[in-house]
Structures are given as structure tokens and as C-alpha cells.
Amino acid sequence: MTAPTYEKLTPPTQGTRVTVDANGRWHIPDDPVVVLIRGDGIGRDVGSVPGITTCAVRVLDAAVAKVYKGKRRIHWFDAHAGDAARERYYPQVKDAEVSSLNEEKQRQLYLPDDTLKAFEHYSLGLKGPLTTPIGGGFRSINVYLRMRFDLYACVRPVRYFQGVEAPNKRADKVNMVIFRENTEDVYCGIEFKSNSDKAQRVLALLKEMGYQVVPSSGVGIKPISPEGTKRLVRMAIRFALDKKLPSVTLMHKGNIMKFTEGAFKDWGYEVAKQEFAAQTVSEDEVSKGASAAGKVVIKDRIADSMFQQIQLRPDEYSVIATPNLNGDYLSDAVAALTGGIGLAAGANIGDRAAMFEATHGTAPKYTG
Q1: Which fold has domain 152-184+224-349?
Q2: Where, residue-wise, is CATH 3.40.718.10 in the chain?
Q3: What are phi and psi of 105, to 5 degrees?
Q4: Helices (H), 94-148
Q5: Which of the four, 43, 44, 193, 269, has the lowest number of CB atoms within 10 Å?
């Protein structure tokens, strides 16, 4: 792939691209280039006071140097998003003018083409927390990155760290990895404002189909597909097998939303049965006498019950696969058991790109 040209970015003079071959295998060189977005709020340096992203880079560099004794090194490529991007690329645009811009122009304010080209070329990124854009058109940098690069799995490892004060008396039992679907569900951004023309057209169609909805309603769409579900659950099962973990739990609200979250559960079981039959066994089969020895147990839990389970029986859950919205709720709730989301890491992973991040917000009152 030919290296892109940039308007206001300078790539590192050393380092090698991470590549993914036609079979989906990642090839990580000894000197990978990683795109770095420092973020807003506590992510940014203030004078001589480093932000959390700079601190993270120092720790990572020191860890790599110690483990590999100089044989490997990360080369960081500074790119920009959020307020820092707007200040660098469009300093002349005032806050009052943002809402008058179309959605694509708002996107360019907070997520410039330079940054998109850098991430597309180098495939790996690390980013700090980013401010939610003002203006109301372009709503989320994080969601845009996930959708643009098909980062379909939000992977959130959560475990107890000895010595950290935690509110739950079973916090030391928490050691879970949550696989949250990242591109579908209500977070895909298909929604229509109350009394808007598009909302009225959707409501008219629903009425034609026999559904009665309050005419002034705002409307959101919740798409969940077999393709999106199966690739997420496939990744979760492969992870459990690779790490020799005992179970994968499908979290859903299928007792109410039968054709979306209920289907998520059913498609998850299908993947296990069709692609991992020799390596997995369902919880139902185990209850009927099947052996779980050497296999990953596939089970499912209703979403509201799952929130109780993580508090009362956290050691029974090692890998959890969940639709987007419930995964957002659950991952923060599990992190709270062990001391809060300030300790929680996250990765947005696709087949050809991955972005690693802090999962908390910008916390501007702590800046500096």
C-alpha cells in the first residue's frame, strides 16, 4: 500500500506498518508504527504536566524496553481528534457556527481526514478520551471510528487489582472479558427526532403495519443481524479457547425482544454448534449429563439477571458476549465492582484494524 500524504501530520521516520494478509492473519513487526490520539481533558498535556496518554506511552515504552531488551520498539505517530483537531485544523470556526455546518463538515472539525488516512494505513491506534462534539449533527468520534473501520468488537477485560479499594466484597473474584458488539443495535445511530418529517414517515409505516405509537414520538432503530452477531461470538469463543477459559455467556434480553436480542442468543448458539462442535458444549447439555472436560461451556443469561450474577457469582463468568447497548451498561457495571471505570481498558477490534483506549471520559475538572 502506498503511504498517504498528509496536510498537517508528520509520520515517524522509522518503524514498519502492521499488516493483515488475505487470510486475516495479523503480522506484527518488531518496530510497529501505532497511531496516537492524545485526546481531550485529562488526555492532553498541560504545560509541563503530562496527560494520561503521555503517561501511558511512557509506561508502554518502558515495558517494551524491559521485556524485549531493545529488540522491539513502538514508533508513535501523533494524530489529532476532538478539540485538539479543531484547534489545529479549523481554529477560525467559532462555537456558534458549528451547528450551521453539515454533518460531514462537523466530522472534519473533530476528526480530520489526516487522522483517518493515518489509521487506515497503519491499522493500530491508541487514543485518549475525546470530547463529544458540539453542534448536534456529527454526534460521536468514537462511534464514527468504529463504523468507518468496522471495529465490530469492543473487548473489555475487567479484573480485580490487589490493593485497590473496591466496593464489592467479592471484587477479588472478578476476572472477566466482555465482548460487546460495536456496530449494530440502537448505537448504530439510526434515529429520528420527535415530530421530524423522517420520524413521521416511519410512524406512518408502523401504523400501516398495525402498530400504534404516540404520534409525537422520537424513533430509534435496533438492527441486530446474524452476520454481526456470529462474527462477535466467533471471536469470543476463539478467545476463550486460546486462553483456556471455561465458559462463554451470551447476555441478552430475548425474553422481551425476541427477534433482535433473542435472535442474538440463538445465532450465538448456532456458531458454537456449527463451527466449534468438538470444542464447546452447552450448559443445557452439561445439565443432562454431558461432560464439560476440556471444552468451553456456552450458556446464556437474561440481561437484568446478569447484573445480579456479576455481583453475587462473579467467578462463574469468564467471557461474556453481548449486544451493543447491554454491553455498554455491563462493562461499566463490572468495572465499578473493582474500583471504577478509571481502571478499565478497552479495545475496539475488527478483522483489519484495532483501536485501544481508556474507557472513561475526559474529566476536564482534573486536567493539569
Answers
A1: Isopropylmalate Dehydrogenase (3.40.718)
A2: 1-149+350-368, 152-184+224-349
A3: -70, -40
A4: 95-98, 103-110, 113-122, 141-148
A5: 193
Task: Tell me the sheet residues that pair with 76.
Answer: 34
Active site residues: 187, 253, 304, 328
CA-based nearest residue to 323, from 246, 242, 256, 240: 256
Taking the CA atoms of 163, 179, 346 and 168 in sequence, report the sign of the dihedral they define. Answer: negative
Beta-bridge partners for 52: none
- This prediction has a pTM of 0.92
Confirm if 355 and 348 have CB atoms less than 8 A apart: yes
User: Largest Cα–Cα distance in the chain?
Assistant: 70
Q: Which amino acid is at 213?
A: V
Q: How is domain 1-149+350-368 classified at the architecture level of CATH?
A: 3-Layer(aba) Sandwich (3.40)
281-318 residue pLDDT tens:
999 999 999 999 999 999 999 999 999 999 999 999 99
